[in-house]
Amino acid sequence: MSRTSIRNKLILSFLVLLLLLMMVIAVINRLTDDYYTAQAISVALALAAGALFGGYFSRSIVRRLNSLSAVAREISRGDLSKDIPLLSQDEIRDLEEVFAAMVEDLREMILDIKNVASKMEETNRTLSSLSEKVLASSKEIDESAMAIAEGSEHQTMIVQKTSLIINNCLDQMDAAGRQSAKTVLKINNALVKTGTGETKARQTLGYLDNVLRQIVENTKPIYRLSNKVEKIRMVMHVMDEVAQKTELLSLNASIEATRAGEMGKGFALVANEIRSMAENSKQSSHEIRQIVDDIFQDNKVVIQTLRKSEEDVGKGRGIIGSMVGTFREMVSGVKEISSEVKAVEKVTLKQVKEIRGLLSHFEALSRLAQQNFVSTQKTTVGTRSQKEGMKKIVELMQSLNVLSERMKASHRRFRLRGD
Amino acid sequence: MDIFIFEAAGHYIGIEAKYIYRIADNVNIVPVPLMPGCYEGLIYYRGDLFDVIDMGRFMEEEPSTPHDDPYIILLKWNAEMVGLIPDRIVGIKWVEDNGGTGAVFNERGDTVELMTPGGIWKKLAGLAHGT
Questions:
Q1: Do A252 and B18 touch (CB under 8 A)?
Q2: Number of domains in chain B
Q3: Do A258 and B23 touch (CB under 8 A)?
């Protein structure tokens, strides 16, 4: 429908009304001869038509304006549920449309405000929960940072003590390494001396073999002497027997001579002399026997001594042989000890090197622990400032809450369609 | 008179030389049971049996020094025969016949106890028998 302006409507209506009046006046003029009466009636009709038209026209405008006014009043009370009636096609229609658009915009704005308030509230709740969590986390971070700081401090102390102990260990291991080097030197000397001892023991064994052979050679005459002495004893036994028989014979001769009386006195004298000689012979034989026995005993002792010497030399040979073996074992043992001590020295030096590396790592660890301590201190400061910031955020959220409450309150003032 | 002197258990014993038959050695002595301790046994010498007495035990009734190869003094008188084992034989000495023991027979002044074969035999018969 095309729009018609009020001015055009007024002009068109006035022209229609004027046409109607002219037609009425023309009728009245035909019907009435009196001019003045016709004029008066025409004026009266014109005035009445003018008044009626004016009244009608103004009333229709006022009514629509009143309608708009009533809607505006409702809107001012917050009721946005009413629609703006679009009754005409004139300039008031523009006003109504503008007003309706304004009301629509207002509705959208109120809805937006509502949504924004709801979202703000929701966001506030989320932010509140998050801020509580952040605060709790900050507290935990703070406590953890404190614990880490204490741990770092403690760790620094332990690392420093450990470094000190490792330094002492290194000193001791250095000393052990030096001692190992000295021990290797001494073991080498011992090896040389043991080798010399083995050589000398071998030489002694050779000498002992010679001595043993010499002793065996030397004992042969003594064994022969023993046999000769035994033969002498046998001869002496025979001589004893001869002396005894002689004595017996002389005794019996004496008895026979005695029995012969005076005639046997000379024979008795001879028998006595023979007996005396036999006794002397027996005595000499006895003495010789004693000497031979002494020689025999001495020879026996010498032989026993020689045998014991042989045994002792044999034992000594065995002992020196075992000494040679022992020296050989000692040499091999000392060589093993030397190689083991060298290995220990090598391992010790390697350990010293590795422990030095470990010490440098410990120093780095100490520095890291100190840095950790500083970082945790900074973290503590940061968490504290974070807590302060969070407190401010909470305060701002509370302000936002107030604002959202106020927005909600504002929204509650309006009533939309469907509320 | 001529006295045959021998030593036994530290005593010098003398027997008149006329009773001495022989001095023997290397003779096997056969033991005889139930005889006194000083009785050594019997020997057989040139057809005769002789009773053998250890004079050391006879004098002291104690075992005398052992004899490896003892001399045995063989006595014969009135068809009696006995053998005496001395510790040592001194020999035949001439001593004054003073009718008893105690005669000095050497330079050291040792005295001799005179015995007769009958006296020895009689004393032997009076000894306790052994087992």
A1: no
A2: 1
A3: no
